[in-house]
Design a protein that fits this description.
The protein is an alpha+beta fold and about 375 residues long. About 35% of the residues lie in helices and about 20% in strands. It binds adenosine monophosphate.
Length: about 375
């Protein structure tokens, strides 16, 4: 439970001029379409930017105001917070905001109104909480192995924190696990401290779909806005080498995400997509009030049994939403316009302003 008092946030919001709201975010991750979408909905925009990283926001002309800081993490400094409040800012969280500001400071020191649920960010960051939420939602996840001794099939080994897949490896036995841990330590991709925290789960062989949803509090509806799949290095390159040569060169695969591409799914899979999104929203309402408000993402593998297995979730806008800055096949079906995730957030805030319900969207 965060120490930032919701009543205090609401009293800050009460003093805002609702006709002069600024949509603000940290300049990284998905900020281009967050800011662009806000401008399209008629808001003023502000970007908190690390010195030297202004260029994309200037060149794409998405920010009206710049708050330049030495380090990204300075977004939580008191003087920056004051500037944000003075502009009537609502801050949109994203993956880099969480990584740089840090969960503790977002929960305890960041007294600026934020879109969505501040408390839910910890649930995506900590694997046990994430798993608890997905289990309670009855969403199919990869089997988890508590001990490397128990490995009886191909497993994927992961380490804590958002690392974009760095240090992950596959193994099929305890011996292979030990050898690969030693190899990762030698490469300095993991540290000794990480070893006991290794998360071991069933390797799901299938195709990757990262599903981007928006839960509208105003409409009490889960919307499917887009889907992407990932470019991962070096595994994508490795599979282009014939099996015989793969053995010869002895390259170890890695799963570092380097980019995203938009995808659509077989239409017959969409009922499963809505089912898992709806279930997650329902259990989030019970587990961490006010729930999964706003954007969220389920990272999945679809098996050849046409079963969607979810191996990860993001409880805020996910990096893959950058694939539909100008809309996706799915957002077109719903809105008949080029709706990005950023614009969808801004549209919700705009609608809430006109219905006098902004309090419902903010923590
Ligand atoms: P993550 O950091 O959890 O998003 O994972 C990075 C990449 O590792 C994913 O995009 C997948 O390609 C792969 N991956 C993660 N978990 C699994 C799993 N259980 N089975 C197969 N591949 C996985």
């Amino acid at each position: 439970m965060s120490k930032v008092n919701r009543d205090e946030i609401l009293s800050i919001l009460a003093k805002y001029d609702k006709n002069d709201i600024t949509i603000a975010t940290l300049g990284s991750h998905t900020s281009l379409h967050i800011l662009k979408g806000a401008k399209k909905e008629g808001f003023k925009t502000a970007v908190v930017c690390e010195k030297g990283r202004e260029v994309p926001y200037q060149r794409f002309k998405v920010a009206d105001e710049y708050i330049i800081v030495d380090k990204f993490r300075d977004i939580v400094n008191e003087d920056v917070q004051e500037q944000l409040r003075a502009m009537n800012s609502i801050v949109i969280p994203h993956g880099s905001f969480v990584a740089y500001a840090g969960l503790d400071r977002i929960e305890n020191d960041f007294n600026v109104p934020m879109f969505g649920n501040r408390d839910i960010l910890r649930w995506e960051a900590e694997r046990d909480l994430e798993r608890q939420m997905m289990m309670e939602s009855d969403i199919r996840m990869p089997l988890k192995f508590d001990n490397s001794e128990d490995i009886d099939r191909t497993v994927m080994v992961k380490f804590p924190g958002a690392r974009g897949g760095k240090g992950y490896f596959v193994a099929s036995s305890k011996e292979e696990f030990d050898t690969k841990i030693a190899n990762m330590l030698e490469r300095e991709w993991i540290e000794e401290d990480d070893v006991p925290k290794a998360h071991i789960e069933e390797y799901v062989s299938g195709t990757n779909f990262c599903i981007h949803y928006f839960y509208s509090v105003l409409n009490d509806e889960v919307e499917l806005l887009g889907m992407d799949s990932r470019f991962e290095s070096n595994i994508d390159g490795l599979v282009r080498i014939p099996a015989k040569d793969q053995l010869d060169i002895g390259l170890d695969p890695s799963y570092v995400i380097t980019g995203n591409h938009p995808v659509v799914m077989r239409e017959s899979l969409l009922p499963q997509v809505f089912d898992i999104g709806d279930k997650l929203v329902e259990s989030a309402k019970k587990l961490v009030k006010p729930g999964m408000n706003g954007p969220f993402c389920l990272q999945t593998m679809c098996t050849d049994n046409l079963e969607i297995v979810t191996f990860e979730m993001s409880a805020r806008t996910d990096g893959g939403t950058n694939t539909f800055m100008n809309g996706s096949a799915y957002s077109y079906l719903l809105f008949e316009e080029e709706m990005s995730m950023g614009q969808r957030i801004a549209r919700e805030i705009k609608n809430a302003i006109s219905e006098d319900k902004v309090d419902d969207l903010i923590t």
